[in-house]
Structure formats: C-alpha cells, structure tokens
Amino acid sequence: MASLSSNYVIEFKIDVIKTLKIAGISTGLLTAIGLGAYYIHRRSQTSKRVILRDEVRNILRPFQLTEEQLRRVMANLNTEMTNALKVDDSTENDLAMFPTYVHHGPSGKESGEYLVVDLGGSNFRVSHVFIEGRNRMRLNNKIFLIPHSLLLGEGEKLFDYIAECLQRFIDDNKLSVLKAADYRFDLAFTFSFPCQQKSLREATLVSWTKGFSCTSVVGNDVVLMLQQAIDRRKNLPIQVVALVNDTVGTLMACSSNYRDCKAGVILGTGMNACYFETLDNIPKWKGTRDNQTKQVIINTEWGALGRNGCLDFIRTDIDRELDESSLTPHQQVFEKMISALYLGEIVRLIIVDLVQRSILFPGRMQKSPSIRPDYNIFLILRGSFYAKHVADIENDTTDDLSTTATILTSIGIHDPSYDDCFIIREVCKTVSLRAAKLAAAAIAVLINRLNMSSVTVAVDGTLFRHHEQFKQNLSRTLGRLVLRAHRLVLSEDGSSKGSALVAAVDRRLKTSPMAYEKNLPS
Ligand code: GLC
C-alpha cells in the first residue's frame, strides 16, 4: 500500500543519511541525493500507474455516457411510452404502461385501519396501518424473510407462506382482539411486478422480474391467489381490496404532503416509475371516462425498455454478458443497467475482465495458491459483489483506500495493492455514474410529460436512500436535462403507507363518491 511504501522510502533515506554522515558527506549533498533517489522511485511508480490507467480507461469508456446519448435515451423512452399508451401489444412495445385503476390522490379525509403485504424483493413486509386524517399515519410492521426455495418453487406455496406470516402477524399483535365476530381487515397488496389490471383488485402477473421465478403464477390473478391462500387458513379474517405497484404506493404516500406530486419512482432492487396521465392521452383506455374520472396512474414498467434494441447504442459487452447469464435474458434491459440488483454484478464482470487481462491482482493467483479458492468464489460466483459494495467503495476517501481494501478482503480478495483498490474504485464510480445518469434521463422524460410549472417526484429505494453519490449524480444530471422546476422527495415507507392510502381512497369514494372533487390535490 502507498503509505507502507513511502514509510519504507523514508526509513531507507534515514539509513542512507546515517551511513553517509559517518563517511563525512555534507547534509546539502545528502538531501540532493535523497530527493533524487526518491524522485526516481516515484517516477517509476507513477509511470506504471499511467500505463495501467490508460488500459483501464479504454475498458471503462463505453460506460461513460455523453449528454447527447442521454438525450437519445430520453427520446426513445418517450416514444416507447407514447406507443404503449395506444395499444396493448407486447410484441411491438417494449413498455407495458399499465393503467392501475388508481384515479385520485388522497384528499386528506381518508381514515381507517388497513393491513398491507409488501412483496417485491427477497423479503416481504406485513404492515398494520392506521390512517387518521391528513398526514397522520401510524404504522407497525414486520419483515419476513422468504426462503430462497420459495422464490423459485411452486407459486401456491409462496402465497400459502404469505398467508401463514399474516396469521402470525395478527396473532402476535393481537389485532383481532375486540373486533366483531364478522370483522374482516381490508388488505392492500403491494406487489411489485408487472401486472395487467382489470380493476383495483384484479391483476394478472405478466412476467416475473428481479430474480423471482415461481411456477404457476404468470398468467394468473395474483389477488385471487392471495385471497385463496388466506381463505385456505379458515380463520384469517382478511379481504384483499387493492393491488398496488410499489411505485404507485410511493407516489400516493408522498402526494398526501406535496400537492404537486404526480410521479413515483423506485430506484432499488428494481427500477420503475408511475405517473398521473390524463385519459385523453391513453387511446387504449377502455374503462370509465366521465367527469369524475379524468386521469389514471400509469405503471410504466420502464425497466423493460430496450427489449427491441432501442438501447443497443449504449449497451456494452458486459451488459450483454450479464443479460445472457440472467434468469430473464432479453428482458428488463434498462433495469439491468441501473438497479441495485445488477450494479454489483456489472462491476464484478468488469473486475473479472481486468483480472483476465492481468491488470488487476497481477500474479497473485500464482504467488498465493492458498488464497485461490477465495478469489475463485468471487470470480466465478454470479451476484457475489453487491450494490452496497459499489456504494461503499465509491465513497472511499481514505488516503490509502483502506475502506476499499477492507471490503475486498471481506469478499475473499486478500491484501489488494493500492493500485488494485484504485482501479476498482474507478470501476465502481463509473458504473454508478452511468446508472445515475440513465435514471436521470428517465425521470426527465416523466417531468417533461407531466408538463407542469413545477412538479414533485416521489422516490424510494435503496439506491436513492443509501447511495449518496448516486443521489447527487442523479440530481446533477437531472438539472442539466430538464429546465422545468422539479424536486425529488424521499417517500419514506411509501410502498406500504401509500398502498394503505389507495385502499383508503377507494373506501372513501365508495362511501361518499363526490367527496374527492373538493379535496383533490391540484
Ligand atoms: C421491477 C418490477 C416493477 C417494480 C420495480 C421496483 O422493475 O417489474 O413492477 O415496480 O421492479 O420494485
């Protein structure tokens, strides 16, 4: 490491000085000799680094996007969005642009008690939400881990497991105590996968994303599947009243505080967005169209952009390699360049490439056979480098890159050199910057489509919440791409709170259908 080698140089200089002094040579001459030796040493170090960095630069260059490329991404996304609003044709259109049957934001008059099941990652969350009027919500929740076997197994088993966890949650929190014998909890199901909806409570899963692959669910109504699993337990007093994508929950939760909040974005394990669209702009809309129903939230499912090749001009060999070896080749092309599930893997594949070219860890495998197995785990195992590693390494500002060294050691790369750490930090920065720029380009399209004088975009997801550099790059790029006033607001717990709000708005409109007219956020 650099600090060690410079200590070594200093000690070496002192020893030489002592020896020469004994031989009677003057201090000035000694200093000149010492500095000369040190300079030669540094030059050899620096020139070695420049050669390395030029090679690395060539490998990273395709990941560095220009503003012109970003504007082309924006134009392509915008065209795909418009086309997919015309007709449901999954062979022609990359995007689904699903109408969600959520027509109104919260008015502030919603109230009541709701359960929410939030399923979208490798664990799921059950929440008990109390809505007590404008901006006042209480939430108690519990996270349940999903055994990996269930993510890839029989779908009915996944739903049975969810029902079992619901039962445990109700029992542990004694929620049924003091309830009338015929009381049934209203449950909103935050299900963060592409679903074609026929109403708020009818939703057919079109495909799995984000590494899920349970059988016998695609093509089925997931609301019905959850309700049937609940009913199989006999004494679980729950009715599923709404299916909500996490982006929609994020938007709804934020719009109770920000009247100009009209879009919701998730930048996490997956990446997606929704926004309010006027029905007149949705030729494929077959549902109600009257004075009270003029807009609907569209779940864009924009992570699917690129299936038909419109992103090929920026895709790299690494993107293709990642896609081919994923559970869903040729799908979610845009998502695979941005979301947290894939960022670490992109970095890992670049590292593997650099190792194969002997740029990283040169000679280490041969010199240290004892550490070979660890290296191999990292080099062979897909998904063994996480977005969190990317974030932490990118943020490493220590002089000797000790944070990076510690992270690398923790995943089996023992004693990396300063140069190794330096290069890996460059890789992380580049991949993360590309993701932030692409996310900014997509959000810019939303802001332009909304065509408002100022707009708030609700955002949630680990990349936005915990990856500070990503967030800064996102905001900076967005500022360059759009002229309209906008702000990005973190929608805390949005996907659970917001889903409860969707159920609450629905309940309120059923009991007093005209109520929203006075209270609709403008
Ligand atoms: C994936 C899903 C989408 C979800 C997003 C964020 O892209 O397809 O429905 O909103 O991940 O969780």
UniProtKB/TrEMBL annotation:
Residues 56-255 form the Hexokinase N-terminal domain. The keyword Phosphoprotein does not apply. One of its GO terms (biological process) is glucose metabolic process. It catalyses: D-glucose + ATP = D-glucose 6-phosphate + ADP + H(+); a D-hexose + ATP = a D-hexose 6-phosphate + ADP + H(+); D-fructose + ATP = D-fructose 6-phosphate + ADP + H(+). It is an enzyme of class 2 (transferase). GO terms for molecular function: ATP binding; D-glucose binding; fructokinase activity; glucokinase activity. The chain crosses the membrane at residues 20-40. Its EC number is 2.7.1.-. Residues 263-505 form the Hexokinase C-terminal domain. InterPro entries: ATPase_NBD, Hexokinase, Hexokinase_C, Hexokinase_N. Pathway: Carbohydrate metabolism; hexose metabolism; Carbohydrate degradation; glycolysis; D-glyceraldehyde 3-phosphate and glycerone phosphate from D-glucose: step 1/4. One of its GO terms (cellular component) is mitochondrion. Pfam families: Hexokinase_1, Hexokinase_2. Keywords: ATP-binding, Glycolysis, Kinase, Membrane, Nucleotide-binding, Transferase, Transmembrane, Transmembrane helix. Belongs to the hexokinase family. This is Phosphotransferase.
